[in-house]
Amino acid sequence: MASRHTVVFLVAVVISLSDFIHSFQPLFSPDGNSTTHRDISLRAVLRKTAEVCRDMAASEGRDFRLTIDDSLSTDKVQRACSTTGTSTSLLSTVLFQTSIANMYFSNAKVDVAFALSEKHHFDDETFQGGRDVITAGVAAVKASVKLESFVAGRRNLGQVCHTLQDFYSHSNWVELGNKSPYSTLISPDQPLENLAGLSVPTCRNCTGGKCENNLLPDLLQQGLLTSGYFNIFSAAKPAGKCSHGGSFDRTSRKDPVGGISKDDLESSHGSLHPKAADLAVNATMELLEDVRVAVGDKNFLRLMGLSQSSVLCFVIDTTGSMSDDIAEAKRVSFAIIDSKRGTQQEPSAYILVPFNDPGFGPVTMTANADVFKDSINKLSASGGGDIPELCLSGLQLALTAAPPSSEIFVFTDAPAKDAHLKSTITAIIESTKSVVTFMLTDVLASRRRRRNTQRVSPRKMTQLDAQLYRDLARASGGQAIEVTKSDLTLATSVIEDSLANAVVTVFQVVRNPGRPDNFTFIVDGSLMNLTAYITGASSLTFDLTSPTGVSQSSSQFSGPLATITTVGNLRRLSLNTDNQTGSWEISVNSKNPYSVKVTSQSSVNFIYNLLEAHEGAHGDFSLKEGRPLSGGNASLMISVTGSDKVKVTEVTLFDSSGPTEVNGSLQSVGSGNFLVTFSGVPAGEFVVRMKGEDGSSTSRSTATSFQRQASTQIKTSSISVTAQASNTNIEPGSTISVPFTVSTTTNGVVNDSATGMFTVRANNDRSYTSTSPSSITIASGDGGTANGTVTLTAPASAASGTDVTLTIEAENAAATDINYAVLRFSVVAKVTDITRPVCQTVSSSSNCPSSSSLCASSQWTFIANLTDGINGTGIESITIRKGNGTLNTSTVAGAGGANVTVATYSASCCSQNVELAAVDKVGNVGKCAGQARKTTVATTLTAITAAVNTTSTGGHTLSISHCLWISVVVSLLWK
Ligand SMILES: *[C@@H]1O[C@H](CO)[C@@H](O)[C@H](O)[C@H]1NC(C)=O
Ligand SMILES: *[C@@H]1O[C@H](CO)[C@@H](O)[C@H](O)[C@H]1NC(C)=O
Ligand SMILES: *[C@@H]1O[C@H](CO)[C@@H](O)[C@H](O)[C@H]1NC(C)=O
């Protein structure tokens, strides 16, 4: 066993421990043929999502045409799930892809964050511990979904799937001949049986380097479950026990030598790797099904990110002078809601965050348009008036509440009082890739400010104040739109534009300081409704030239290439691209700062994530949060959406303010995914730009080249900040400590002779109590690194499922460089109710005719009593899983005071099966099934100890056995 001292040391070097990955490979297969956690998760998510869509289509009487097998892709599934549209219509799978990526990145992270925790990997026969991890994780997923906190739900889901999947690689479940998943792992109320005890030997030596028959025959005969021991420091293991195996596992060199892992094809039991991976897929689907039943089909699809539309997210200043702005925000959002309700473009959720001074929040986050309308109706402009407002605090809440890559609109006419949050907001923008656009009203012109400095009230926003908003807009790829209050109505068309279907960014650039410049961008045949936005001073002029040489100047409001509207500092160009694919040029003439952004609609787009490489025998990657290191290497994973025929030809880090463009080297990792590596990324600010050829583009054009650009800027830093918490869930009322490390790097490598002082800031979006050193010093002899600890305390009153984002920033003494770590936690109350609701069938009356042709004229009824027992959290919902009849429920007092829900289901005799699911308040699912055809009186009803009157069954008194309430088995009374 590692000593305590060693463990402390290990925490500090935890990143390098992931070099010893000992599970299915997290993201990429070393041999190209093994199945990774990413593959397993993707297959399970696609199949389960397709099943849910199929079932929903069936219940709504819609067609569903898709074969559900392992050849599914995100595009195929989303198209099949789409209730409108055709196989060729515009469709964006960006949100779905992003959500799935978030799940597999948090899955992969378990190998970094919990590298040495045996229970997270079912090593060392820790079956109870492993199942506890799963039970707690599944409860956290359900709690998050209940609060519509899908981002946190996906993170928890990814993690819990890692542990579940590892079971099939690390245990002998496959070797025992099992053909289906071990359901007990997701059923905490079932006993774990047939475990090989600590003193039971399980393995013998592998012989001749082959481990095919190293499990003891006795063990297999008795059907006993075991798993391999694993340790990278010590060879110690209990006598006769199996090891995990592999070069890093020291226990596998001790008698009995060898291992049983099925992590990849080269593992000790590598020949069983495909079987283990297939079972892990089915087990993951089973877990997803449990979550699906607990949260309902609609919320399950939201959790999977199967949404075509974006969220509508407003952050609104509600101080006195804002009444016109609030009225406009109300008008535009109501117009959007009313015109899109019931269509595919209806926003998938609505988020509203008010702010003023001293307050901000709360966040309203809802899928219900009427709830949003209600909240925005309740906003009224009052108070404030002479002080700056808490704009960034409000924005921080919106950024962490919204799904990644959302567009957020901020309405204000005041400077931010909380400008100290700028770097925190920038960090969260970089981490969420959300776009922030500011609608700034009545910004003072710089000339007036200079003349009347004393008379300008602090409420008024100066050019300098507005620069903060411009910087944040720029970091995110959004815009800072400055208009008069009376013109705001004309500017809000950008909000409607952003909510169009499948919006992509084709090109974007910022010039600050401004200078005349020419820009080119490629227009491809898949693009529809090309729109350009140019912000800048009123003196700015430009010329637009199409590939065929037609041109138009900014003075022509309606010309051959574009219709131009101008409001405030914004020019919106609606481009006419008919048959004009190819290279377009825009030349801008301005000495003041300006920005150019070209967007369009297309199914073809991409998502990217920064990765961190791990060295070692099975070098793999994990998601990198924080800025890449100046002069170092950077890796990205790119996923192309919208076409199976896209060929990516070039991925660059493009410096949008200068001439630098760093080329990445591309490696395909299957299904439209690419690993891109950049070496020696210079200091600077970049965006990811992708170019490719689309083989599927058809009649619309001959040109097949296309380009897309990401919105978010990637800044590099010479400071490295790493932080790792021991847990990602916090119980209400408890405190978590987060150790972090700061170092200075040169060309991406820690400079071990560097010294210096760094300002440290720790901020969280929930205003939870947090402690942090205000600075940290690397002294000479410290090896170039300094360590500190941040604590975060969740209040006892925090609702289970609340997520909280903590950023830890370190800034150098000159305040010229900053880097950060972003950590996300879920507040999850300890789940004590692990038993599922129990179903007891009471009766099934059937007058169904034996001839099925007569079925439509007859009805049958099924009655069941459901309870969560005395100690349960109580039944929250009962739904019909199978059957198209009607369900009525009533609640009565049962034996011993437990609430009993009487479910009465009636259906036509043409539908003779029913399955009901009862979900308790923490998401445990109990099911009961019934069938019309053969009726039998339940024999269990003879054990009558308590009588319950019900009102819904026509006056008979039903009697239920008291002792049955604690039964955990779902009774099936018909065979
Ligand atoms: C991967 O599988 C392919 C096709 O089965 C085979 O040709 C190739 O040799 C395999 N590669 C490795 C490294 O095992
Ligand atoms: C198993 O292998 C080890 C190492 O080669 C050897 O020392 C030991 O004697 C072997 N045990 C048996 C039972 O053969
Ligand atoms: C997984 O489930 C599918 C569909 O239910 C089934 O066809 C397949 O045989 C299962 N695979 C394993 C390894 O159990």
Automatic annotation (TrEMBL):
Composition bias, Basic and acidic residues: 250-267
GO annotations of cellular component type: extracellular region
Ranges where the Hemicentin/VWA7 galactose-binding domain occurs: 504-603
SUPFAM superfamilies membership: vWA-like
Name of the featured protein: von Willebrand factor A domain-containing protein 7-like
Keywords carried by this UniProt record: Glycoprotein, Secreted, Signal
Domain named Hemicentin-1-like von Willebrand factor A: residues: 312-485
Keyword Hydrolase: no
Region Disordered, residue ranges: 244-271
Protein source organism: Champsocephalus esox
Subcellular location, record wording: Secreted
Domain (VWA7 N-terminal) ranges: 73-301
Residue span(s) of domain VWA7 Ig-like: 724-829
Primary site of residence: secreted
Gene3D superfamilies on file: von Willebrand factor, type A domain
